[in-house]
Structure formats: C-alpha cells, structure tokens
TrEMBL record:
The keyword Cell membrane does not apply. This is SH3b domain-containing protein. Pfam families: SH3_3. Residues 397-461 form the SH3b domain. Residues 1-21 form the signal peptide. It comes from Candidatus Desantisbacteria bacterium CG2_30_40_21.
C-alpha cells in the first residue's frame, strides 16, 4: 500500500505542468519543464532566441557567449496550494550556474485501515543543480551547453540522475534565431518504474528593436510526441520600466503577463501565469548586475573625447582647437535629427576625422601634444589621448564624463521620454557630461558634436 501511495504521489504532486487537461504523465521530473526565470515566464517561455540574461542557463546556454555583463538573480514562487519554488542563478563572462528547488508542505500519510491519517507525515522535494557555458564563434553566432544533476525525493524514496542541454544562437542587431535540445539523459528509476526525461527540442525566432522585443517559439516534447507553441512581447519605457505579455499553448497553460523595473544595476521582475484548472500564480525575482566586460580600448578611443575646453595653450594650438570646436558646432547644426545606428554614427566620425586631419597639418609644428586620429587609434588599439598642456599659471579644466551601464541606452533630444530618440549607445562607452543639473537626466556631448540627454539609470559618473 505504501508503494502505491508513493506512486500516486509521483503522478499528482509537483507535476502541474504536464498532468492537466488531456495530457498524460509519461515523463519524469516535470520540474525540468517548469518555466524558470520570471522575465521569460512573463513572455510565455518564448525565450530561446532572446537568451540575453541569466535565464539563458535554462532556456539556451549559447546566449552566455553574448552576454556582456555579470548577473545574479533570486526568484521565489508560491506554486499552487502548498508548493513553493525557489531558484538562484548567475552568469559571468560566458559561464553560469543555477540551483532550483521545489518543496511541498508536510503531507499526511494514510493507509486503508487509517484513512484519516497515521500521524506520520512526508514531503516531496525536487532539486536541480547545474553549470553552463557559452562561447561566441563569430560576432553573431554562439554555442553553449549545460550539465545538471536532478533529484526527486518523496518520503523515504528518492531518485537522482544527470541531464544536459545543447544550444545554438545566431543574433544580428535586430534578429535572433535559437535552437536548443534540452534534458538529454537516461531514464530515471523510481521505486519499481522507469520514467523518461522530458527531452525537448526548441526552436525560436525573435525581433528586437530599440524598445520592443517580439519572440516566438516551437517546442517538440519527444517522449510525449506533442508540439507546443509560445509567443512573447516585451516593451521598455525610457529603458526603466518593462511591460511583458505572452501565451503558452501547452495543456493547462494560457496567457501570461508581467513587468520589470530597472534602477541602476538592480532589476525587479514580476510575472502573472494563468492556468486552466488552477488559480493563477505570481512570480517575483530580484536581479543584480555586478560587473561588465571591458570595452575594447579602440572603441573608447573613437567615442570618447577628452580634450579640455577653454584652456590657454600655445597660440598655434589654441587657434587650431578653436577651429576644431567651430567645425564641431557646424556639424551639430547640420546633423540630422532622425535616429541613426551606432555603426553609421561611427562611420561618420571616421570620415569627418580624415577630412580634419588633412586640414590640421599645422598641428605637426605645434609645441604641444595632439590627439591621434581615429584610424591611428584603431590600429594601435589604444584609447589614451594626450592632454593639451595649458599655458603657465593657467589651471587645466577637468572634463566630467559618464559611463553607459546598460546596452543600447537611448539618447533623447531633450530631458524626458516625450522627446525623440536621436541614437543609442552601447554599454561601457564614455561620453562627456555637459549638464547634470536636471533631476532625472544628464546632458551629454556625442562624439559627432551633437548634444543629447540620457536617463541617470542608464549611466554612472
């Protein structure tokens, strides 16, 4: 009788993801199929072609090869009645790790002679622990893999096993294509029965704009011989607030929704997940971005200008500097106000610098140090820019700068989201700070001479 009760428990406890509707319980560890990561859950689990945060360890480890910052998340969910879920995950420079646990409250043990309970209790505990790694093969293509140990314990009975994931990800500036095979492993034996793992092949396609992401995904669950479709959307307001929604067509599932709030390096995410035959659940997580990869020195040389302004220098160099500032002002007035891509922005800077280099031959005879051309900086791979020496008795004016802390940070034409976005800037880039008197926005100087405004949550002094 005890074995019968335990077998029934396997089918009824902790398996809400595949035991509803007309679906049949044919696989072990359905915990492996549960959507992990609050952001991805709010997007209907359509995430294998996005995979740009620490949830990549669950949805597509190839995404780790393209993540530029270290991240860590803590997640908690009150799962249905007396089942709670806790998860922690983190990524750093192409590697990741995670630990997830599903735990029930105490359950009364009953027998045929004591249907009201024997006074003894037991509980179920499922756990997954794993490590992931990803590497970029080119600027757009990356691959990755995950190895994980899983365990399931019900009362005095338990089972353990190993599984793995293999992922592929191709990303351009706006499009993403993901392919991942999940839960590759041997059958798990529990008591006197064997259960196959929920091996799944997922393919996804995603489009990402300056503030909107749309993703779709098809998942083929091999042991159950069924296909599931997922779609998800995510939109950002001022790169601070995210609104998300999605739909999961798996049996018993349905619409999803959620939001996120990002303040500096801390992000809070919430997801609402609905079910056909059970009450909806609420999921919450807190994420911290704790480091970023170094931006190539040549990139800083291109996009950072460190020449002090209004500095008394030798007459020839001073005249040349004034001519340079006048040219920058002229470029700013002539610059189009429509948004431009970062690649186009960089190409324009290089072209203008070539022209200025020909017109500035007088600098070769100046007695002060001069700034190297952008092509020269790129060839040498250095971002150091010699500082012009002031005349005797004149102090050097310090130029304040800010560093971009979020990728694709929008630069607005005015101090607020009601103004248009004139361009976006990658994470790690430094810009000259012009005005920090506003409460929420800083005015910055772009390398092409234009002025713009950036939210303080996307940068740091």
């Amino acid at each position: 009788m005890k074995k019968l009760l335990l077998s029934l428990t396997i089918l009824l406890i902790g398996m809400p993801t595949i035991c509803w509707g007309n679906g049949a319980c044919t696989t072990a560890m359905p915990f492996l199929k549960m959507g992990m990561g609050v952001r991805a859950s709010a997007m209907g689990k359509a995430f294998c072609a996005v995979a740009n945060d620490d949830s990549a360890v669950h949805y597509n480890p190839a995404g780790l090869g393209q993540i530029e910052s270290g991240q860590m998340s803590l997640e908690y969910t009150k799962w249905l009645e007396d089942v709670s879920y806790t998860g922690v995950s983190g990524v750093y420079h192409g590697f990741g790790g995670f630990a997830n646990m599903l735990l029930t409250d105490e359950i009364q043990t009953t027998t045929e002679t004591q249907p009201q309970g024997t006074g003894k209790t037991f509980r179920e505990m499922d756990g997954i622990f794993g490590v992931s790694g990803g590497i970029s093969l080119t600027n757009h293509i990356s691959v990755g893999g995950t190895g994980k140990v899983y365990s399931q314990e019900i009362g005095n009975e338990n089972a353990k096993g190993f599984a793995g994931d293999i992922g592929f990800l191709c990303k351009t500036k706006q499009m993403g294509l993901g392919l991942v095979v999940q839960n590759i492993g041997t059958k798990m034996r529990f008591i006197d029965r064997k259960f196959a793992l929920p091996t799944t092949i997922r393919t996804g396609l995603a489009w990402t704009g300056s503030w909107l992401t749309i993703s779709g995904e098809m998942a083929n669950i091999l042991p159950e011989k069924k296909t599931v479709a997922c779609v998800g959307l995510e939109g950002w307001l001022a790169n601070v607030i995210a609104l998300r929604c999605g739909y999961d067509s798996e049996d018993g599932h349905g619409p999803t929704a959620g939001f996120g709030v990002r303040l500096k390096n801390v992000k809070i995410d919430y997801a609402f997940v609905s079910y056909e035959k059970f009450e909806a659940i609420h999921r919450l997580s807190v994420s911290v971005k704790f480091s970023s990869r170094n931006v190539p020195e040549s990139l800083n040389a291109v996009v950072t200008e460190r020449i002090p302004e209004q500095t008394r220098i030798a007459p020839v160099a001073e005249e040349t500097t004034q001519r340079r500032d006048q040219q920058l002002d002229s470029d700013k007035k002539a610059a189009p106000q429509a948004p431009c891509s970062y690649d186009q922005w960089l190409a324009d800077i290089k072209e203008k610098e070539k022209v200025r280099q020909k017109q500035s031959s007088v600098l070769a005879t100046a007695t002060v140090a001069t700034m190297p051309s952008i092509p020269a900086a790129l060839r040498t791979g250095t971002s150091s820019v010699p500082t012009l020496q002031p005349a005797a008795g004149q102090p050097t004016k310090q130029v304040k700068t800010i560093t971009i802390t979020n990728d694709n940070a929008p630069i607005f034409s005015g101090p607020g989201t009601k103004y248009s976005v004139i361009t976006t800037v990658p994470e790690g880039v430094e810009l000259i700070l012009v005005d920090d008197s506003k409460q929420w926005y800083y005015q910055v100087k772009l390398p092409d001479g234009r002025l713009g405004w950036i939210s303080y949550v996307n940068c740091q002094k």
